[in-house]
Amino acid sequence: MRFALTRLGYAVIVIFLVSVVTFLALHASPGSVISSVLNVSTTPHSVIVAYERSHGLLDPLPVQYWRFVSGVASGNFGTSLVSNLPVMRIVSNSIGYTALLAGSAFLLIFGLGIPLGVLAAIAEGSALDRAVRTVASVVLAVPNFVLAMVAILVLAVHLRVLPAGGTGSFSDLILPTLVLAAEPWSLTVRVMRTSFLEHMSADFTRTLRARGIPEWRIQWRHVLRNSIGPVISLGILQVRNLLAYTLLVEVIFDWPGLGTQLVNSVLQRDYNVTEVLTLLLAAVIVLASALGDILLSLVDPRVRVSGERV
Amino acid sequence: MNSNLLPELPARSANPGRVGALEIAGLCISRRERRQPISLVTDLSLSVADGEIVGLVGESGSGKSLTALACMGLLPRGVAITAGDVRLGGISLVGMERKKLRVLRGSSISMIFQDPLASLDPCARIGSQMVETILAHKDISAAEARKDAVELLDRAGIPRAAERMRCYPHEFSGGMRQRVMIAAALVLKPRVLIADEPTTALDVTTQAGIVELVLELRRELDMAVIWISHDLGLVGQLADRVAVMYAGEVVEVADVQHLFAVPRHPYTHGLIRSGRRGEFGARFGFIRGSVAEPGHWPGGCRFAPRCDRVLAGCDRHPELALLDKAGVRCINPMTGGSGQ
Amino acid sequence: MAAAPLVTERLVRPKERRWLRNVAGRHNIGWLAGCVVLLAIGSIGVIIQAVPSLRPVYLQQDLSHTLKPPLSPHHLLGTDNLGRDLAWQLVGGLGTSLAIGIGVSVLSVVLGLVIGILGGFFGRAADAVANVIVDVTWAFPAILLAVVFAGWIGPSLTTVILALALTNWAGFARIVRGEVLSLRERDFVSAARMLGVPKVIISVRHMVVNLVPVTIVLAVYFVATSIIGEAGLTFLGLGVQPPMPSLGLILSTGRQYIDITWWPVVLPGVLLAVLVLFLNALGDHLRARLDPQGRVRR
To answer: What is the Cα C257 distance to its own chain's centre?
Structure first.
């Protein structure tokens, strides 16, 4: 329990620093904020200064920072410079989509990754095993946006099996989810398989066999529980990667989640949106990392906490 | 549930105690290699009667653990029995269907291992591990199985057994863990118990407790026991007969008293002397040289390169001549006191 | 003080030479050849961007011949949406990728070494600071970093380099720190410190030297991840901007015209995949030779 509190406390400190970094990068030069609204070269200087003053852009940085942070903390995320919608609304519109995509991918990664990894291990050397491992290797070799493009090319354009974008129906979700889940799934299958195989020849497995317990029971009740640890650790590490990939996949498939919002906001210089979304996503990563460490310290009955993160 | 798969074993009462509960005859175990298989255990014969404790002694690499695993049908991948037979109460185990063999394991023949921490599932409570074993063989209710488990844990010397059923293996001390292992192995009252160096990882006092436990249980259950160890002194304390293994074969078998009084094989002699301490606490009597790797054993007597009593005829492989369950594999055995 | 260098000298030398011999062995001919080919093509890619008279080779637009498929006359691999020759675009893009990849890798490695050694060797306070810096950086995956930098200085080559370098160095710094923690207990370090050699010198002469094998292995992996990273960020519009050629830009064009063309998608994709596979395999091979104890964790 003490560990959990310390870990969360540290996470809060990190989030605070993250907010400072985000703020400095996006606010530090008022010119960057202004240029998204006014055309700097053609607007008279006095108008620029007036604008700056009215938007509090001439105040000292710490004051501006405080305004930013207290705003975020109280739920007032400001207004989009481009669309004039409250940023909060933009977030709430998109967050559902991102959650849906990430959640589906998560289900696929573990729901398909763990069983296949186990089956591949049990049937070691068989055709199934080799097939699973080959697919995993191929997927891990190809960058995921390339994979996405090839998938779109083959499945959407040429074979016309699945749609390439939009959010109309369930089938729109399939391709993005597959692409998103591909790489983490491959890693999960690999780790699960290796861990399972290692434990299949462990001492305690030998004892269970010596007691005449059926092999299937040994596999699914004992070995699985013992070998799933590394998969959980990997999963925790993957949260960060999954988030980053989700952003990328959303843009490729025109999926209206936080990712597309974020990238568009930067390209359109809509900094109010950018800074809030950036802070939000970074905070999620920090918290996920902290929760992961805490979870790990609880899961193993032998309490073997190394506290290491890669 | 499984009773119809259980082969008919001759009842113990029908045995006057002279016929082997476990009989190993001419067992050969080899490891599959690229060119040709490497022999790991050659022509091993040993028999254990009900209620008898036979100690199997030898250096690491002599093949004792492999022999034990072969009896259980648990040889690792790439290693297999290439000849010979293992008979449990007269039933041949070699070549038996795997399903039937699994039924026998744990219920008729059981094994305990060296490192109880590594040999117990760390993520499962010991109670559930024991109940699982029982239910895998007997068609009774979970509650009854739990009762049996508690009973045996208690018998094995675990205090507050009923409570401790819910504990995990790492919550026990080394000696208690080994008792748990023994309890789990004997919960179905098997006919034969193979103990592979069960006390090697324990301190001397704890060791004594385990030895005593096994002796008691042997008496109660009339169990045949093979006790494997590299510690000849320990084996001397508890075995009825001792078989000494070297380089994959048995080189001497004898009653425990005879073995220690008159060790006949030079290797046995050397082992006993190595265990003795001199006047000033110094050990003496090492056997010079070291045992060769499997695959590199000499064609004749395998101990010849290290033997002080080697003769010209030792380049031919000596046979183990058994007389009244005792024998020695040597053409120039020692006689008289251990001073020679 | 004159005695000091002598003692530490002898203790360090054997380890230095061993890995050098490993790398320059005869079995490595295939790998060396691959690297040479790669660097050659990459250099061409950089040269055609650097020398003004050569630039038309990939910049030349030909609006009457846009989106031609491969094996068209004059254009072995086809053209893009502005009629530019795709083959030269790919070569240029490869040059960009390699240059950025190597640059980022070097940057990450240097940063990682400095922070890692500072954290592991220079006391608790430095370690705490270093850890916090690493953790804050950890909160920003490459895309987020790129977004932040793009917001700050606009999407560009610099943005990509900064974003990727800062993504890689944190993990590397952690590994370095771990290694330094174990290295500092070693005899030659204690001896040097006892003799009064300043920490900075110990760091450079001994720690870095012993970290070279691990560093080389990771540097190669970083080149691979940076190449992917650059292509991805540019693809999103956050990175290199035209007219600088980039594999990501070609892919992005391909995405726009995916209904009617396949080559702007498949060609850079294949090139990227092959490149990454080669670099990963090289990294694995080097790891087997230089780091058999598995100190590198991927």
So the answer is: 31
Q: Could you tell me which residues come within 8 angstroms of residue A22 by beta carbon, excluding any fewer than 6 positions away?
A: A275, A278, A279, A282, C148
Structural domain including C167 reads 99-290
Q: Is residue C5 part of a domain?
A: no
Whether C17 maps to a domain, the answer reads no
Q: Which two tokens stand for residue C286?
A: 């080097």
Phi-psi region of A38 (alpha: psi -120 to 50; beta: other; left: phi over 0): beta
- List CB contacts (< 8 A) between C297 and chain A: 310
Asked if A touches B (at least 3 Cβ pairs < 8 angstroms), the answer reads: yes
Residue C59 maps to a domain:
no
Check CB contact under 8 Å for C148 and A25.
yes
Mutate to test the interface with B, among A205, A211, A221, A223 (most CBs of B within 10 A): A211
pLDDT above 90 covers a percentage of chain B that reads 14
Spatial neighbors of A223 by CB under 8 A, at least 6 apart, are A196, A199, A200, A205
| Matching residue, tokens 């990328």 | A248
Count up the domains in chain C and report the number: 1
Q: For residue range C162-200, list pLDDT tens digits in order.
A: 888 888 888 788 888 878 887 777 777 777 778 877 777
Matching residue, tokens 């204690």: C190
Rounded Cα–Cα distance for residues A263 and A245 (Å): 13
Flag if A143 and C155 touch (Cβ within 8 Å). no
Mutation pick from C133, C136, C223, C250 vs chain A, by most beta carbons of A within 10 Å, is C136
CATH number for the domain spanning C269: value is 1.10.3720.10
Distance CA C218, CA C210 (A): 14
Name the residue facing B106 among A203, A210, A215 (closest C-beta): A210
**Cβ contacts of residue A70 below 8 Å, gap of 6+?**
none
Six-digit token pair at C17? 């030479």
Domains of chain B by residue range = 14-108+190-328, 109-189
Contact: chain A with chain C (3+ CB pairs below 8 Å): yes
How high is the pLDDT of residue B5? 42
In Å, how far are B62, B302, C267 from C74, measured between CA atoms?
75, 79, 17
Burial of C132 (0-12, 13-18, 19+ CB in 10 A): middle
Rounded to an integer, what distance in angstroms lies between the CA atom of residue C178 and that of residue C131?
12
Strand partners, B20: B49
The verdict on residue C86 lying in a domain is: no
Q: Establish if C36 touches chain A: CB-CB under 8 angstroms.
A: no
pLDDT-derived band at A116, boundaries 50, 70, 90 = very high
Maximum Cα–Cα distance across chain C: 76
A153 touches C270 (CB < 8 A):
no
Please report how the helices A229-252 and A144-151 are oriented relative to each other, as an axis angle in degrees rounded to 10: 60
Cross-chain residue pair A25–C277, CB shorter than 8 Å: no
Chain A residues touching residue B120 (CB < 8 angstroms)? 204, 207
Contact list in B for residue A196 (CB cut-off 8 A) is none
Please say if the pLDDT value at position C297 is more than 70: no
Instruction: Record the pTM.
Output: 0.77
| Residue C261: CA count within 13 A, CB half-sphere | 24
| DSSP secondary structure, C52-71, as one string | GGGTHHHH---TTSTTPPTT
Starting at the edge strand found earlier in the chain, the sheet holding B79-88 runs: B38-49, B20-31, B79-88, B91-92
Specify the amino acid at residue C19: W
pLDDT in tens, A267-300: 777 777 888 888 888 888 888 888 877 776 665 5
CATH superfamily of B14-108+190-328: P-loop containing nucleotide triphosphate hydrolases (3.40.50.300)
